[in-house]
Amino acid sequence: MAFRKALKRVAVVCSGVAGATFSLWQLLEYKKTQARLAHVAAEAELSVPFADELPSRRAQLEALRSSEFDVLVVGGGATGAGCALDAVTRNLKTALVERNDFSSGTSSRSTKLIHGGVRYLQKAIMQLDYEQYMMVKEALHERANLLEIAPHLSAPLPIMLPVYKWWQLPYFWAGIKMYDLVAGVQCLKSSYVLSKSKALELFPMLKKDKLVGAIVYYDGQHNDARMNLAIALTAARYGAATANYTEVVHLLKTGDPNGGPDRVCGARCRDVITGEEFDVKAKCVINATGPFTDSLRRMDDQQTENICQPSAGVHIVIPGYYSPDNMGLLDPATSDGRVIFFLPWENMTIAGTTDTPTQVTAHPIPGEDDINFILTEVRNYLSPDVEVRRGDVLAAWSGIRPLVTDPSSKDTQSICRNHVVSISGSGLVTIAGGKWTTYRSMAEETLDAAVRAHGLRAEPCRTVGLVLEGGKGWSPTLYIRLVQDYGLEKEVAQHLASTYGVRAFDVAKMAQVTGQRWPIVGKRLVSEFPYIESEVIYAIKEYACTAIDVLARRTRLGFLNVQAADEALPRIVAIMGQELGWSQERRTAELESARKFLYHEMGYRSRSEQLTRTSEINLDNQEVVRYKKRFHKFDKESKGFITTVDVQRVLESINVHIDENALHEILNEVDLNKNGQVEIDEFLQLMSAVKKGQVSDSRLAILMKTAEETLDERGPVTVDRSGGGV
């Protein structure tokens, strides 16, 4: 009975929306065309002072010190950068400061989706919630805009919703069709139903048992950190004084001539790199600091109540073979009622997210319980033939979602589903909450409120259809020109084109000659990823100040494979050190800081923890005998441990040559007490962890197994670095 009522309700709402949508179809097309024409005219009026070259960070800091601005935006995430771009394109004199790097917080730690929110639409229908429905509609409009203004950084992605009960098929189909209808003319592609056989053909890793079919719908996917950076760089090109690593120490205030509370008139800022402090004066200050919203609000009024209720979302990255190249998966009802996405991203597979209350911190750490929860849910949907191992987790991170309560609401305990724009008695404008996808409309609403509250003389919003950094002139075949003109590898050229857009040519021009027949230029930072050394030099032009900026946000290596990131780190520091004139002390500090970041925030610590937790060796007697025998082939003197010398000696006897530094790294992965040697107990712990799936693709384990098998034959053995799960 309950199901029939729900289905009837869905049918009624679908019918109403369908009629309304199609009756307005031509009108929507007309309005869309008119909006584009209006944008073309508006864009033609805009000047781009720094179209050819971005000003240096030093020049940006000098502009902050020496000018008075209409708008000062605090916070360099997606929303803050969006506010700065909106303001500067309204011909407002604009400044943007960020105490860390652009996109260093929540905006780089998302699920990488540009979406309206299928689950929000479900709630809107079931609860007849108009506000939630309008939030989805707005997000779907913004999804279309974002795909249009940054085509190199975003693309439509088909997502499969597997169905394991017959009655769910019409129920889910009606909901997904409703999603298409709400999008209207901005629907990316129409959703469709798949038979069991077709679903398994497209997603062969899927669990077959009791599968009755699947529904595929479309949403957008993007490179979130690069998208955030593109917004900030676009604002800088249009003339916004934009500086990362610039922290607000306190707000500046001046007396109100009408006898009211003192008015916010700027901020005292500190250059985090040099420690120098200076004032930035502005008629209006916008607080767009995400999870740190309340910190800035308390600078304005120490008695103000918190409105941010932070929630942590953990994601993991596992090898790309766990999912098809161009098909995601949605688990609509996990064991605890949450939603899990399982998506291809940057040739890897991303899975998440969780949703648990947390404390606000600049350095969130992924928890082991959350990682295992995601792995368990993934196992529930994949075939038993696919062994999902803890050791296959290549990276893991936690992002803090800034859920908010509305300070103007009588019920201040209720969480606001959407965003909140508020203006304090002193004139501080705060934008909080919301979604990545709706950053632009949030910025527009924020600037509209700021213009009204402060009497600013501004043009109308011009950001709908405003193409972001690298997007103008981009085409899907642009990478071919990079291959032909510069002699780059195809994979590298595709990566540069999809990361920098038309600016990829600037990166290619900086690429060093390899000295090989092919590729002609483009030395990779690490062999299995398409990131090249010239990207580090170009990253400095994009305001990268630390090695972490390059590892995590200019490239995405730290988010994709922390072990590979650790290997690339010394070369990144060397290049940046040479370009920026770093002392040896600074280079050492950068190495330590970046490794700490990888260890704690990107999940690298999990590898050693998986081994130390396995103090109880879970091997049977035959396995212990077999592994001890293997160990003693390297430990000829029966010392009870092996060193790089022992391993090198055995490898040379079978004509295998490995660089000494690489060999040190291989042993260091297993050397738990860091004494420069691997004891027999550490080796048995490793093999036990491999058996249980806690560690996978261990280089030492594979190397010793292969060497043992080839010792008698004396055949050549090649040992390449494998995936290196954490």
From TrEMBL:
Record's keyword terms, sorted: Calcium, FAD, Flavoprotein, Metal-binding, Mitochondrion, Oxidoreductase, Repeat, Transit peptide
Pathway: Polyol metabolism; glycerol degradation
Cofactor(s) it depends on: FAD
CDD domains in UniProt: EFh
Compartment list: Mitochondrion
The UniProt record lists the keyword Oxidoreductase: yes
Chief subcellular location: mitochondrion
InterPro entries reported for this sequence: DAO_C, DAO_C_sf, EF-hand-dom_pair, EF_Hand_1_Ca_BS, EF_hand_dom, FAD-dep_OxRdtase, FAD/NAD-bd_sf, G3P_DH_FAD-dep
Residue intervals of the EF-hand domain: 622-657, 658-693
Catalytic activity: a quinone + sn-glycerol 3-phosphate = dihydroxyacetone phosphate + a quinol
Listed EC numbers: 1.1.5.3
Keyword Ion transport in record: no
Pfam families: DAO, DAO_C, EF-hand_7
Enzyme class: oxidoreductase
UniProt GO molecular function: calcium ion binding; glycerol-3-phosphate dehydrogenase (quinone) activity
GO biological process, one term: glycerol-3-phosphate metabolic process
Stored Gene3D superfamilies: Alpha-glycerophosphate oxidase, cap domain, D-Amino Acid Oxidase, subunit A, domain 2, EF-hand, FAD/NAD(P)-binding domain
GO cellular component: mitochondrion
Recorded family membership: Belongs to the FAD-dependent glycerol-3-phosphate dehydrogenase family.
Its biological purpose: Calcium-responsive mitochondrial glycerol-3-phosphate dehydrogenase which seems to be a key component of the pancreatic beta-cell glucose-sensing device.
Protein name: Glycerol-3-phosphate dehydrogenase, mitochondrial
Organism this protein belongs to: Salarias fasciatus
